[in-house]
Write a structure and sequence with these properties.
Keywords: Aminoacyl-tRNA synthetase, ATP-binding, Ligase, Metal-binding, Nucleotide-binding, Protein biosynthesis, Zinc. The chain is α/β, with parallel strands linked by helices. It is built from 12 helices and 12 strands. The strands form 5 sheets. Strands 1-2-3 form a 3-stranded parallel sheet. Strands 4-5-8 form a 3-stranded antiparallel sheet. A two-stranded antiparallel sheet has the order 6-7. The radius of gyration is 21 Å and the shape is elongated. The relative contact order is 0.16. Bound molecules: zinc ion (ZN). Zinc ion binds next to loops.
């Protein structure tokens, strides 16, 4: 299968400049390495009517193109179920009946890392499971054989993190994100995962699961997020941060693209940025952005010069 990179937004509303910046970086990583670029809509949880169309329109208007049809996670339930059946057949799953509260209140095993599932349901007898099934539907958890796993990330180097008996299928029957993302990436031929570095802590779980399913672990690049001046992840309430809001304020998509590329020290058009792109030169710190700057400043020559010597086209 041809190798590919991807952008996988949740269709919960319009994308903001933080999402768009991550999308641009994923596109640059994929295209600069000759990969196909896929868009997958992660709609297991939060799909707002019309959001997908808006998001695709916004991606196109900042110069991102993609290959093939846009795929939706909810259309892939059979692939997810099939992966779950393979894990179950290998004895790698078990039913968990814990409520959130029971997990919080359970005494954690000695030396268990913070946030790890305490293993309450791991060794229930069949009689105990029968009884619990009558009380509430079960979630399905992975029977993990390790407590830590290491991945290699293009920007972070070696990163080791927690692997616990994480949930594969929620007790409402919906496949869990960690399983869906691993199956979808592998089945779509995605061998390069570029996304926000808030997802780095869940990456060891996903890489470990990919191995159990016999998939090749993709190359990872977790890119810094955009933060508001208070140091929190940028959100729509922070100001005019969507393309539509910025357009209303007189800042068009080309200008937004220039600003986003300047924030990663690249020249201001997608094609020029692609020619100049080098992962090693990317900033490793978050971009702290006061949204007011997007609308108050006129285009500033100095900001766009000296960016790798390429001329913005
Ligand atoms: Zn449990």
């Amino acid at each position: 299968m041809t190798s590919a990179g991807r952008f996988a937004p949740s269709p919960s509303g319009e994308l903001h400049v933080g999402n768009l910046r991550t999308a641009l970086l994923a596109w640059l990583f994929a295209r600069s390495t000759g990969r196909r670029f896929l868009v997958r809509v992660e709609d297991l949880d939060r799909a707002r009517a019309g959001a997908e169309e808006l998001q695709l329109r916004d991606l196109a208007s900042i110069g991102i193109d993609w290959d093939g049809d846009v795929v939706r996670q909810t259309e892939r339930a059979e692939l997810h179920a099939s992966a779950l059946r393979r894990l179950a057949a290998d004895g790698l799953t078990y039913e968990c009946f814990c409520t959130r509260r029971e997990i919080q209140e359970a005494p954690s095993a000695p030396h268990a890392p913070q946030g790890a599932y305490p293993g309450t349901c791991r060794d229930l007898t069949e009689a105990q499971r029968e009884r619990r099934r009558a009380e509430r539907p079960a979630a399905i958890r992975l029977r993990a054989g390790v407590s830590e796993w290491a991945v290699t990330d293009v920007l972070h180097g070696r990163y080791a993190g927690l692997v616990d008996d994480f949930v594969l299928q929620r007790n409402d029957g919906v496949v869990a994100y960690n399983l869906a993302v691993v199956v979808d990436d592998a089945e779509q031929g995605v061998d390069q995962v570029v996304r926000g570095d808030d997802l780095l802590p869940s990456t060891p779980r996903q890489a470990y699961l990919a191995g159990l399913l016999g998939y090749r672990v993709p190359e990872y690049a977790h890119v810094p997020l955009v933060l508001n001046p208070a140091g929190r992840r940028l959100a729509k309430r922070d100001g005019a941060v969507t393309l539509a809001a910025l357009a209303s304020a007189g800042v068009g998509p080309e200008r937004v693209t220039e600003l986003l590329l300047a924030s990663v020290r690249l020249p201001g058009s997608p094609s020029a940025a692609l020619a100049a792109f080098a992962p090693a030169a990317l900033p490793r710190e978050p971009w702290v952005l006061d949204p007011a700057e997007l609308t108050s400043r006129p285009p500033h020559r100095a900001e766009l010069s000296g960016l790798g010597g390429s001329t913005a086209v």
